């Protein structure tokens, strides 16, 4: 069983990030760099993490015209990240252009995973219908339609909430990756997230990766919070496979 945890390094700068990572010593972590840290520190942050052996998800959620995304991805390819993403709402043409730009001139073994965000885990069905004006689908249907588009564009998987994982796997196949943020231990604050699930529920849904930020980064003891999440995941995983 692989360790599914991706820690969201949502910190304002490199110094705070380094201080946080010191808690974990040499543990081989999978970490995520998003807009907050990247817009401050740029590619050098990714190089720093890769030199220290971390697996890195570069989460910039590209969404623009196909040509712009294609060329931006050519530059992001230089980061040497293990996973990058776009918004599925940019459409199939944009996602295909992202893939072409990202992989241009890359050897097979260097290619990062490319995934698409479906509906953000902070989005509720009401907001999707009334503010984004996607009213012909339920939220679950909209996520699955985006997942099908991502698959048709040749992407490796999607970001969604755990609520939609089972259906995505049914429609797109088990090998199509599901990456699921909005993970919370029972009884803890949802913050700005709407579609939330526990690590145990994520394991039962057989998601591939869980993305966790504040439950670990803001914990008084980040390592024990990390271990608690992993234990909850592993326990449920064994139960669900009995
Ligand atoms: O692409 C993402 O990583 C992402 C997609 C999504 O739908 N929801 C979502 O929360 N995320 C990211 O996952 C992380 C969740 O952080 P916490 O809510 O603190 O656990 C943040 O870094 C978000 O940017």
From TrEMBL:
Organism: Fictibacillus aquaticus
Lyase in keyword set: yes
Annotated protein name in UniProt: Orotidine 5'-phosphate decarboxylase
Protein's pathway: Pyrimidine metabolism; UMP biosynthesis via de novo pathway; UMP from orotate: step 2/2
Domain Orotidine 5'-phosphate decarboxylase: 4-229
Record-linked PANTHER family: OROTIDINE 5'-PHOSPHATE DECARBOXYLASE
Entry's family note: Belongs to the OMP decarboxylase family. Type 1 subfamily.
Biological process annotations from GO: 'de novo' pyrimidine nucleobase biosynthetic process; 'de novo' UMP biosynthetic process
The keyword Lyase is assigned to this record: yes
Binding positions (substrate): 10, 32, 59-68, 121, 184, 193, 213-214
């Amino acid at each position: 069983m692989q360790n599914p945890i991706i820690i969201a390094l949502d910190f304002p700068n490199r110094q705070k990030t380094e201080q946080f990572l010191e808690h974990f010593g040499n543990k081989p972590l999978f970490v995520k760099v998003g807009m907050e840290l990247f817009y401050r520190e740029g590619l050098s942050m990714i190089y720093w993490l890769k030199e220290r052996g971390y697996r890195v998800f570069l989460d910039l959620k590209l969404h623009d015209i196909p040509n712009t995304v294609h060329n931006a991805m050519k530059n992001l390819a230089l980061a040497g990240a293990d996973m990058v993403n776009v918004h599925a709402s940019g459409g199939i043409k944009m996602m295909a252009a992202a893939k072409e730009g990202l992989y241009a001139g890359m050897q097979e073994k260097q290619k990062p995973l490319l995934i698409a965000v479906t509906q953000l885990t902070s989005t509720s069905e009401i907001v999707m219908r009334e503010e984004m004006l996607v009213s012909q689908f339920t939220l679950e249907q909209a996520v699955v339609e985006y997942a099908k588009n991502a698959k048709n564009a040749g992407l490796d998987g999607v970001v969604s909430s755990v609520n939609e994982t089972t259906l995505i796997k049914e429609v797109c196949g088990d090998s199509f990756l599901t990456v699921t943020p909005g993970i919370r231990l029972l009884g803890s604050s949802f913050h700005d997230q709407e579609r939330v699930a526990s690590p145990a529920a994520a394991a039962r849904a057989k998601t591939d990766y869980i993305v966790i930020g504040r439950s670990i980064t803001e914990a008084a003891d980040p390592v024990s919070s990390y271990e608690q999440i992993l234990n909850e995941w592993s326990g449920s995983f064994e139960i669900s496979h009995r």
